[in-house]
Amino acid sequence: MVYGHLDKQPYGTGWDEDLSPTDPVIKGDLMYGRGASDDGYAPFSCMLGIKDAQLQGKKMPRIVLVLENEEESGSPNLVHLLGLAKDCIGEPDYMFCLDQEHSTQEHSTITNFGSPVH
Questions:
Q1: Per-residue pLDDT tens for 84-117?
Q2: For 30-83, how does the pLDDT look when each residue is reduced to its tens digit (9 = 90+)?
Q3: Is the dihedral of CA 17, 19, 20, 21 positive or negative?
Q4: Which own/partner contact pairs does 31-37 have at CB distance under 8 Å and 24+ positions apart?
Q5: Torsions phi, psi of 53, nearest 5?
Q6: What is the pLDDT of residue 76?
Q7: CB proximity list for 83: less than 8 A, separation 6 or greater
Q8: Are the C-beta atoms of 3 and 91 separated by less than 8 Å?
Q9: What sign has the CA pseudo-torsion 5, 11, 16, 19?
Q10: Taking the complete model, does pTM exceed 0.70, yes or no?
Q11: How far apart are CA 90 and CA 46, in angstroms?
């Protein structure tokens, strides 16, 4: 099972006058803008990973892609919706979470998926 979400955060406030969340700008060694870190990449990353394995002739298991569309609010409905889809999803041997959180620019952190569905 591969999990990802597609939500896009509202612009909010706090952008400098010459910066926009949707138009990337490079200043010095830094790029400013939302880019792929705002979670639109999950389905494409999954499909490209599968395609790459197929091109290498790898034996492919059944893969279920679960995409969530709730905003970054702790996903209050996710466990319930996974329960409703349990028969379709089946019993995954592995679950890959295509989500990200960076506590610092030097270290990636692992996102906790939450409670298992029973």
A1: 999 999 999 888 887 655 556 666 555 554 444 4
A2: 877 765 455 677 888 889 999 999 999 999 999 999 988 876 556 788 889 889
A3: negative
A4: 34/8, 34/9, 37/100
A5: -65, -40
A6: 80
A7: 117, 118
A8: no
A9: positive
A10: no
A11: 19
Determine the pLDDT at residue 61: 92
Amino acid symbol at 30: L
CA-CA distance, 61 to 99, in Å (whole number)?
Answer: 22
Pairing of strands 25-27, 30-32: antiparallel
Angle at CA of residue 108, ends 15 and 52, nearest 5°: 100
Angle at 36 between CA 34 and CA 37, to 5 degrees: 70
Amino acid letter, residue 5: H
Yes or no: say if 100 and 38 are a contact pair by the CB < 8 Å rule.
Answer: no
